[in-house]
Amino acid sequence: MFYILEFGGQHTDLIGNRLRDMGFDVRYAESDARIPELRDASGIIISGGPKSVSNGYPHDPALFSSRVPVLGICYGMQLLGKHLGAGIHRRTREYGETRMSILDDSDLFHGLGSDGIVWMNHGDSVTHDGDFTTLAMTEKGVPAAMRSGNLYGVQFHPEVTHTENGREILRNFAERVCGQEPGEMKEEGFDAGAFIDEAVRCLREEAGDRTALILTSGGVDSTVAAKLAQMAGVRRQHAYLESGNGRKGEAAYVSGTIGHLLDAEIYIHVRRQMFLDALYGIHEPEQKRKLFADLYASARHDMERLFEEDEYVLVQGTIATDRRESGKEAGKGRSRDSGTAAIIKTHHNTRAEDTWRGATVSPLAELTKDMVRMVARKLGLPGELSERQPFPGPGMFIRYATGFHSYGRGLEDSASDIAASYGLEGHVLPRKGVGLKGDDRAFEHAALLAGGRDWDNVRAASKSIIEDTDVCRVLYLPHEMRFKPGHFMESGDYPMTERTLERLREVTDVVESTMRDHDVQSSQTPVITFGGPDGWINVIRDVQSEDFRTLRPLRKPGEFPWECYDEIDRRLRERLGGEAGMTTFDVSDKPGGTTEWE
Ligand code: XMP
């Protein structure tokens, strides 16, 4: 049995997923679990977390003197480092893709060569002067892994899909350090068939005679949840809420394709004006998200009355990512929240659950996107649905950024100096986006880079700006800067209206259709826009990710040819004329940034 101590990390549930996929048994425990009581422990893992070790969640000091091997991840490594006499400092921050050199490959890194790409998410770092051996180091000279007896620490996240050999590192810990043999390995790791059987059984039991109210969005999560309810033989009432923020033609797709798949009639509830009126002039993303969720809940309440049922059970397609980023544990049934995760973004469905007075069933609450897709395939849903790109509930509302954020000379100078050191022009924009830094929410400025089409150089400059300044979004304009940042600042704001949202829909349509024409494969491509009369800025957020817990932008020109970009630019000019604006790429990783801007 492996115990994972919860210190509020953004990826804690993924540690358990990986070990379970390999055939090991896993249990989660509170950060301050009494170590002698974990009698069947063969290994203990300390999760990451948003706090600093000097004022973190409590823990049992017996952790460090137990006979059971310990692996500290990120915050966990800092906790071990502090115990072993190292200093903790905030001088070197690392977010996202990072190269590490392996100095000792005897057990944790057995068979993994001399270097590799790992995914980082830390503001605090451990100094080298503690009573431990440094097993690996990053390019910035930060200890990336360490060991003292049976205490091991890794500063990076082996549990996220973007860390090369992350699974092997966890496997080495389990097998070589803890001496455990995995149980029976399942073919694909996660057993979608067993999951479906159990979810159908639970749904049948929890819904009983009540009608399931299911708000279908057209996405894979809510369709899978609805399909499971259908298989459970539960009486169902389906509805789609038209809030004016969705993809083009979505209502028709939901009532046609999705209705057919679910063998159900889907009631379309139109509330466009209500949403637009309420959200007008709201700039702060969390305020926007909470308001959206509350309006969503109130529209749902209208529907309840319309359907005249005595008692409903709400069936939702909320997944682990939604829960974790909303500051809730990812459905692991813990008894109390001693290691609560930070709120990165309030996902509409988790808040809508909180405001529901009846019973809720969220069968996918512990699953990540890739697991939901496996379930969808197992259920025989068509590929266009199981592989459909995610689309967030608040959709266009969180892709249309408004509000100016001034910034000081110091920030502009730091960002443009870093850009210049890479031979690029760089400026800070009076816009902010939401980021993920050190397992915590960041709401920081965006910067814009322009210059030669050397992808590795652009990525390196972006990484340096995000790590060394209070910027969490870096945009890249693959041609000369055609505007002056100061001018943009003076140009006024465009509020979110039917017309400006329509422009965003047009830009999105051009980006998506041109990418299709060039056969560009992206895991998700939100398009964000903001600006004023002289300076519309369009942002292509083309990302590669399996589960959206971590991501990187598509590589250019390899995964996204420059010809495709030039064609998007040309088509936008053709379609929007003087309103085409400048089209940029968001080149930030997550962590550092996030997928959506708000
Ligand atoms: P971020 O932006 O946090 O998003 O990296 C991770 C994934 O979740 C989607 N997303 C949402 N999905 N309701 C949803 O159902 C929401 O409020 C929401 N916000 C973000 C996002 O598109 C990405 O796939």
Question: Can you characterise this structure?
Answer:
This protein has 598 residues and is α/β, with parallel strands linked by helices. The protein folds into three domains: 2-177, Class I glutamine amidotransferase (GATase) domain (Rossmann fold, 3-Layer(aba) Sandwich); 192-394, Rossmann fold, CATH 3.40.50.620; 409-593, GMP Synthetase, Chain A, domain 3. It has 17 helices and 24 strands. A nine-stranded mixed beta sheet has the order 2-1-3-4-11-10-9-6-7, sandwiched between helices. The chain has a six-stranded mixed beta sheet with strand order 17-18-19-24-21-20. α1 (12-21) links the parallel β1 and β2 (26-30). α4 crosses α11 (369-378) and α8 (285-307) packs across α10. It is globular. The model is unreliable at 333-337 (pLDDT under 50). Bound molecules: xanthosine-5'-monophosphate. The site of xanthosine-5'-monophosphate (XMP) has 17 residues, from α9 and α10.
Question: Can you give me a brief rundown of this structure?
Answer:
The chain contains 17 helices and 24 strands.
Please write out the topology:
Layout: E1 2-6, H1 12-21, E2 26-30, E3 43-46, E4 70-73, H2 75-83, E5 88-89, E6 94-102, E7 115-122, E8 125-126, E9 133-138, E10 143-148, E11 151-154, H3 166-177, H4 192-207, E12 211-215, H5 220-231, E13 236-242, H6 250-262, E14 266-270, H7 272-279, H8 285-307, E15 312-315, H9 320-325, H10 348-354, E16 359-361, H11 369-378, H12 383-386, H13 409-421, E17 425-437, E18 440-450, H14 455-468, E19 471-477, H15 485-490, H16 498-517, E20 527-530, E21 537-540, E22 543-544, E23 552-553, H17 562-576, E24 582-586
Parallel strand pairs: 1-2, 1-3, 3-4, 4-11, 12-13, 12-15, 13-14, 15-16, 18-19, 21-24
Antiparallel strand pairs: 5-8, 6-7, 6-9, 9-10, 10-11, 17-18, 19-24, 20-21, 22-23
The structure holds xanthosine-5'-monophosphate.
